[in-house]
């Protein structure tokens, strides 16, 4: 598994789950506003049902979200 270095971000596409973003990144909304983040690793929703978008709230498990095609790990 690739690890984040201090100077570059790493994005991990979790099978049937969110995108884990590690390292130095700035999240910006569609209207250009910076989205505050309190952690160095954030989980971004890609199933579309999170109530706290753009972050994952774990709801993907309840809806049995599946990545398609399945990703190799
Ligand atoms: S990926 Fe977790 S709630 Fe969407």
Query: Would you tell me the overall average pLDDT?
Result: 89
Which cofactor or ligand species appear? FE2/S2 (inorganic) cluster
Note the beta-strand portion: 15-25%
Rg estimate, integer Å: 13 Å
> N-to-C SSE series?
EEEEEH
User: Which residues sit in consecutive blocks of at least 5 with pLDDT less than 50?
Assistant: none
Q: What's the total number of strands?
A: 5
Instruction: Give me the secondary-structure category.
Output: mainly beta
How many separate domains? 1
Strand order of the largest sheet: 1-2-5
Shape summary: globular
Distance between the termini: 9 Å
Largest sheet: 3 strands, antiparallel
- Please bin the fraction of helical residues: under 10%
Number of helical segments with 4 or more residues: 1
Summarize the entry for a quick read.
This protein is mainly beta. The protein has one helix and five strands; from the N terminus they run E-E-E-E-E-H.
Descriptive account of the structure:
The protein is mainly beta. It has one domain (10-62). It has one helix and five strands. A three-stranded antiparallel beta sheet has the order 1-2-5, with no helix packed on it. A two-stranded antiparallel sheet has the order 3-4. A hairpin with a 5-residue loop joins β3 (27-28) and β4 (34-35). The model has no long low-confidence stretch (mean pLDDT 89). Residues 17-18, 45-47, 49-50, 56-60 line the site of FE2/S2 (inorganic) cluster.
